[in-house]
């Protein structure tokens, strides 16, 4: 009888998860064709360069050749090659002329076709669905109901929907193999797990802190078994390196990667509203209104970042809860990195939600707090901007609907407040968990 009830409970959970997925996908597919951020238009140029220069792609990825390569902007490609491979494939499918850009009397215009928008966003939307399923799988042993709630909180989070389906950015494509790798590590299939985590970094290297925590955990477990440790490290490195192997046929291109991966030089961040690092947003705001030199933090952010990571390494040494420490590691990155774009918060939301069940209720509250500011951001922002700025023939009914659903705040000040609250919540989480690491009594996992 008990087995029958368990079977019925799992079947019910499966159907509930299916409904959650269908509803969340319906929302995304409804809005996705009618909006796009500037990056999706730039991705079309990256795809063309990968097709034209497949073996020395990174020699042309610095943005200096943007006009001859047919890019709408001079922004560089600063990621691993996985995204470029996918974009090149999508451009072959969609065909030429899907993005156009030109000057006229009213200014510079960049328009993307709906076929290109949906081709790219379909990858991001599928990654969202995959992440929602993985969160459920990772948590269902603790509680079917809890797993469904966490999956729902992720899939229906406004920022998650904004990143994948409104603006369109690929952080979810890096998060998905990382979480899948974590699943296999916890199941004991460590080589596959570490390989997938390494592969996630080849998609987007912003997950480097969580990856380092996973390696730190393996070092703490296997330091007495050097062969097992070497095997795990080889798998991790292989996951990173394999996507780069085609470039060995023309290795000069690889020499460009270290400089490209460093990204932009730290500076004041504009538009201020787009940066969720509260320290940098506030310092940029002070510089703007007072004409003061406030670049100190931006110039030395690496020092603060290393200190924050060291704190997380210590916390993990004390608590040995991998899910909690992964969330803290990524929180440390967003706490200290000088330019926290809105899309960077998508993995944070997933990591924090995954870690919640590992803690007692007071700690859950503290860990949930950093989710609130990025959840508010796309509701406060005039999000309808992305429904017409790069759409040649906008759906104005959709624009009006989005305007009704958002606060449409155009002033900078409220977004400085949101970013400061976000950074304070991350700092509070770090301090709280550091205190717990000395107590050694709140973690259950």
From TrEMBL:
Keywords: Membrane, Transmembrane, Transmembrane helix
Domain of life: Archaea
Ranges in a coiled coil: none
Transmembrane feature ranges: 12-31, 82-103, 115-139, 159-185, 192-213, 233-249, 270-290, 296-315, 322-338, 368-387, 407-432
Transport found in the keyword field: no
The keyword Hydrolase is annotated on this UniProt entry: no
Stated name of the protein: Glycosyltransferase RgtA/B/C/D-like domain-containing protein
Species per Swiss-Prot/TrEMBL record: Thermococcus gorgonarius
């Amino acid at each position: 009888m008990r087995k029958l009830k368990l079977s019925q409970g799992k079947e019910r959970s499966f159907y509930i998860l299916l409904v959650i997925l269908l509803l969340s996908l319906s929302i995304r597919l409804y809005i996705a064709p009618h909006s796009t951020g500037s990056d999706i238009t730039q991705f079309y140029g990256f795809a063309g360069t990968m097709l034209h220069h497949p073996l020395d792609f990174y020699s042309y990825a610095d943005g200096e050749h943007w006009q001859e390569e047919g890019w709408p902007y001079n922004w560089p490609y600063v990621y691993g090659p996985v995204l470029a491979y996918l974009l090149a494939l999508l451009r072959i499918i969609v065909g030429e002329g899907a993005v156009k850009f030109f000057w006229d009397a009213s200014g510079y215009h960049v328009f993307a076709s709906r076929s290109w928008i949906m081709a790219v966003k379909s990858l991001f939307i599928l990654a969202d669905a995959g992440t929602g399923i993985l969160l459920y799988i990772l948590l269902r042993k603790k509680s079917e109901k809890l797993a469904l709630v966490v999956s729902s909180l992720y899939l229906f989070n406004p920022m998650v929907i904004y990143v994948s389906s409104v603006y369109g950015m690929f952080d979810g494509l890096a998060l998905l193999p990382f979480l899948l790798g974590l699943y296999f590590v916890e199941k004991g299939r460590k080589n596959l797990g570490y390989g997938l985590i390494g592969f996630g970094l080849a998609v987007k290297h912003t997950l480097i802190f969580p990856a380092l925590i996973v390696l730190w955990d393996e070092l703490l477990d296997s330091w007495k078994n050097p062969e097992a440790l070497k095997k795990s490290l080889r798998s991790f490195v292989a996951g990173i390196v394999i996507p780069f192997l085609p470039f060995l046929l023309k290795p000069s291109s690889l020499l460009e990667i270290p400089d490209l991966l460093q990204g932009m030089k730290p500076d004041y961040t504009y538009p201020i509203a787009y940066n969720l690092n509260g320290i940098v947003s506030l310092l940029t705001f002070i510089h703007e209104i007072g004409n003061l030199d406030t670049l100190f933090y931006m110039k030395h952010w690496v020092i603060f970042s290393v200190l924050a990571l060291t704190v997380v390494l210590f916390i993990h040494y004390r608590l040995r809860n991998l899910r909690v420490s992964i969330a803290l590691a990524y929180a440390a990155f967003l706490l200290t990195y000088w330019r926290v774009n809105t899309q960077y918060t998508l993995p944070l939301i997933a990591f924090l939600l995954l870690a919640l069940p590992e803690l007692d209720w007071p700690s859950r509250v503290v860990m949930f707090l950093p989710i609130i500011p990025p959840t508010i951001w796309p509701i406060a922002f005039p999000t309808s901007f992305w429904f017409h700025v790069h759409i040649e023939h906008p759906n104005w009914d959709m624009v009006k609907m989005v305007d009704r659903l958002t606060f449409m705040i155009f002033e900078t000040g409220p977004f400085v407040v949101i970013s400061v609250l976000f950074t304070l919540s991350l700092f509070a989480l770090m301090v709280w968990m550091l205190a717990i690491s000395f107590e050694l009594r709140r973690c259950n996992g």
